[in-house]
Specification:
Largest sheet: none
Helix content: over 70%
Shape: globular
CATH class of the domain at 175-250: Mainly Alpha
CATH topology of the domain at 175-250: Serine Threonine Protein Phosphatase 5, Tetratricopeptide repeat
CATH architecture of the domain at 175-250: Alpha Horseshoe
CATH superfamily of the domain at 175-250: Tetratricopeptide repeat domain
Length: 436
Amino acid sequence: MNTYKLYTSLMVLFLAIVLSCNSYQKNKNNKITHKEDYENYLQINTNKVLSKIEDDIDFWTKKYKDAPNQLTYLIKLSGLYSQQFDITGNIDDLYTAEKMLLDCNNRLKGTNASIQRSIAKNYISQHRFKEALKHLQQAFVLGENKKGTLKMLFDVHMELGNYEKAKKLLTDIQDFKDFDYLIRLAKWNDHIGNLEDAINVMEKAMVMVEESNNKYLKTWIYSNLADFYGHAGRINDSYEYYLKTLALDANNMYALKGIAWIAFSHERNVEEALEILSYIELKHPVPDIYLLKAEINEYAENQQAKQQALNSYFRELEKNNYGEMYNSYNALLFAETPGDMRKALQIAKREIENRPTANSYDLLAWTYYNMGEFEDAYAIAKKYTLNKSHEPLIVYHNQLILKANNKLSQENSKKRDLVESIFELGPNFENQIKSL
């Protein structure tokens, strides 16, 4: 390339980055969240859905005690405990449901495909994907509702990084009039980096659900579309759809968490974000809430509050057996903590064993990077993560690994993409990205 062309290319890249930064700065100053929109959802009130589930559990428990041979009662109870877990985040509910399902499965000698799928769903929630796969394979052999089994097989193969198998399964279940197919097609498009197509498909699924007026599915689609809009930088749309979710389900902690993230990441409103998270902590005290509080306090340069939040996170993990569910969080934390990097290495290798995806290999590469073993980090990244994922955090890690190995160039720079992903990554990444 001659000097003039090189200069022109560099100027184009520089202007693109400056414009992106200026655009982001401008958007950042736009107020999107308004407390009057959601403050009613921060009032401690009775969760009628949860109260109904609790009443139903009492009812079916009594029925089952009176007739312990009625496995339908046990299956009903397992479903209720799973629903209760979704609302409260209490891991014991998930384990109770698992125990009941395994009991049913043993008594029926593994001959019921529906129970096999229910066990698989439970294991997916626990991040026990290889075990979930085995139960789905058994369900498929049994034959009942094979299409339902194929849909879940797609989900598990995506989690395991078996993308060619997942792609084939998507073809096998293709039906553009089927909501379940559309949301999986959206997931696939997002995986391959076609976010715009993913959103279009999700919007078609939304129209389908709104026509059927299924409240549960509307809640699900609105909250997931809010996520997609956020990833695409459509923050106003994201906020609107979190509010639509809350209008249907006033106790939807996922939507409130999404609004807290907008307040923090887009508006840099630490006080507002922490207020929302403190409410969620009362209703749905799962460990990752404390990690988000730690992240916000880090941005606010409140080291004491950050450490308190991290202490709460580890206390929750110690108090409850979450199994494999927080491996990724722990690996990232330990990788960046002097003295704990060997722990990160062990967890990363375990995650690769459990689910050999780009995300898992990124944990290993990132740990090596933080240990100063740059060549090992690059060897892992080159084989398993570079150009293998569109996740902003993985792209960011890849850029730092390339830089440490003197392999970051104009051609492989993703700085512009990362600038556009600051909302998704969070404001703590902004300065690091700009210094790439």
